[in-house]
Amino acid sequence: MSDLTIRSIELFKVEPRWLFLKMTTDGGYTGWGEPIVEGRADTVAAAVMELSGYVLGREARDIEDVFQVLYRGGFYRGGPVLTSAISGIEQAMWDIFGKYKGEPVYALLGGACRNKMKVYSWIGGDSPSGVREAAREKYNQGYRAVKMNATPQIAWIDNYREVEACVERVAAIRDELGYEMDISVDFHGRVHKSMARVLMKALEPYNLMFVEEPVLCENLEAMAELRRHAVMPIATGERNYTRWGFKEIITGGYVDIIQPDPCHAGGISECRKIAAMAECYDVSFAPHCPLGPIAFAVCLQLDFGAPNAVIQEQSLGIHYNRGSDMLDYLADPGVFNYADGYVGLLTAPGLGIEINEELVREKAAKGHDWHNPVWRTEDGCVAEW
Fold it and tell me: Catalytic positions, please?
């Protein structure tokens, strides 16, 4: 036994749709992680507890070996539930090890290559509306980049009014703010190939920062086709897990930006490896992060040390956040130091944040039962959300 021997793992299901993990060692060190699949919090919690027998009694510094045991030690591996459970455990181990060494995680991964990270804010909601006013509001708050959904539910082949409505929303922001605001459009995997091709062609005059998930990630051949028809950067990756889930995407040249989520894809080390793989193919890195403060801190630790990191998603004010927002669970809500569309370098040890554990325990007593909506098209057919 040592000060870094892992003694306990606790889970807290908190509003709006998050699951937090607290890890404690025999020496009193604590680390936090965020193991969650949105809408499947209880399932991931069960997976964490099933895996905990391989973790308790291990040293918090043994991050790589614990990952290998958790990932390769079972006959079945991968997928969102298992890798999200592993991710939260691995994040907490890094948090502890950083605190033990007195260094931020990025310092232990080789040091920072930038002193601040550009971030963007969501606008418009699930069924996008009011984007001109929202973009102006975000600009006044200091943001210089926004992202919005392209469409509400959409059929495999739909009326051209859906295309025009999407273009009008983008045009409204460009008219309001010109190139003072970068604009990205998330197709969210809800648009099928034929409509995606039409939409991307129609959006070309507005010079988007990127289009995200123009089709579902399993349709890589469609990504290749879309790249032949449109010039704006294509991003994807939030529904891919581990290096192996990104191998073909990166080596095949299907996208310009990869977006692994370190709460889903295997954790900090795994996402750092994915970023390095992408760098070899001149592909940018922009971690997915519509989740809580632990997830955001994890992403920033990766961004600060990855030279191909280009911009960071964050959930402050996102339309999912009902009941609690990202900064609520922090002992110091000012730790991210937002300024001029950037977040400054985190300097505290570990993940660089301190969780308000009293509030977490209070909110966990209530919990949540968040599930994403089930959408249908006009004829009653289930649509992608």
Answer: 188, 288
